[in-house]
Amino acid sequence: MGATGAWTTRRCRWLGAAGSGAVASGGWAVGTLPARDPWGLWVPHGTAVNVAGYALAYAGLTVLVVAWWLHGRAGAPVRATLVTLAWWTAPLVLAPPLYSADVYSYIAQGTMVLEGHDVYSAGPSVLDPGGQGGDAAASVGRHWTDTPAPYGPFFLVLARCVAWATGGTLVPAVLGMRLIALGGLVLLVWALRGLAREHGRGESAALWLGALNPLLLIHVVGGIHNDGLMIGLMLAGVLLALRGRWIAGSALVGLAVMVKSPAAVALLFIGVVVGRAARGPAVRRVAKGLLAPGLVAGAVAVGMTLMSGTGFGWAGTQGVAGRIHTALSLSSDLGLGLGELLRLLAGTDPEPVKSAVQNLGLLVALVLIARFAWQATTGRTEPAHALGLALLALVVLSPMVQPWYLLWPTAVLAATAGGGRAPVAVTVLSAALVYETQPSGSTPAYGFVLAALACAAGVLLLRRERGGEGQAEVPGQRRPAEPVVGPDARTAR
Hints:
Layout: H1 2-30, H2 47-74, H3 78-93, H4 102-115, H5 134-138, H6 153-166, H7 170-198, H8 203-210, H9 214-222, H10 227-242, H11 246-257, H12 265-277, H13 282-308, H14 330-346, H15 350-377, H16 383-397, H17 407-416, H18 421-433, H19 445-469
Helix pairs in contact: 1-2, 1-3, 3-8, 3-9, 4-6, 4-7, 6-7, 6-13, 7-8, 7-10, 7-17, 8-17, 10-11, 10-12, 10-17, 11-12, 11-13, 12-13, 12-15, 12-16, 14-15, 15-16, 16-17, 17-18, 18-19
């Protein structure tokens, strides 16, 4: 399989790089362009250019997904997978923001911290339109203009540093935030490799699903979402805990929580690791597992909050995102449907019904998280793998779900799951959800149609392979190619 596998990997690399380049090129016309760009680089164009931009971006995205799928089948070694990741990432680095306007919120909120505004009681609209950060504030999505920041102080300090270093000038500030996202990606790659080794899973397979994933490339690198940084810190913390350094690991998870709060789920499973490794009476072990990681992370959160000067308002803004309806949230859709039905039948207000169903969804998620933690405690599931299942339950039952939220559990499962339904599900959904959002950041109805078609295609491909080989196996689970030696060694890169 040596030379054939190597050439297949190389062709996939070129194919994916072409797809990534097409996405980036199309993004210069139809990406999430700012309302004002003083440099005149990221500006709207005419209708003909927009049509061509959309065609190029969607064609490139499809090529990237196909290349990713084939790359998983090729069984590339770790070094080849890392080289491919660099190739596929490079075209997106200098592109305008893609698939989301969130980066403009980050820049505006960093400027607010720099100027002394309370980011947890006001939105970017408080910035002077003609002053520092004004261009970013004018480009923020309409739902977020007056919305307080839902992010933790650690991330806002990073955004403040970018705003200070760039003076809030739009293009450099966006690229500065993308550097932070790339830093999160590097940390994620390191943690994925370590977790894969801890769980006896192939590093290349973990990288294929957890880092080379097109959903991550377009939303963390292209869209500059801070989820990549949160995941990287969280996984690094879990890895350190598994290696016996649970205090440092809990501290890293504390920093992850100070980016986005869902990372706090990892503390429960680090607690399982701590409790299982502790000595003494059962009560003492349980108490140490339940309390110690949380105390360490809590100390980091308090210290970070005091150092940042942003105050503790972040504790009260974690639910602001849930006020916005997203069609990917099952509990929100069900609640809205029931509420509207009751409004037609009884004339009642649909909002309380929707809120009740959303809260019920969160309650079910908490029950499932507790169940997975118990399974890890009793040894039926490895703690890190149970964390991946818990995050998957949280995403499925959350009152607000965006496509890139799937990356939370996917990264963990990529390094811990050797088989089963969960990695198959996140693999297929990763290939499908890339289509849900336009490069401009909007969510058209046809995006769901494209996602459904991609999902059906993925399921059919997996069923076809299962019928031929007798077992369900996602592409990245195939054994890596053997190292190539001799005259053909140069083609393996």
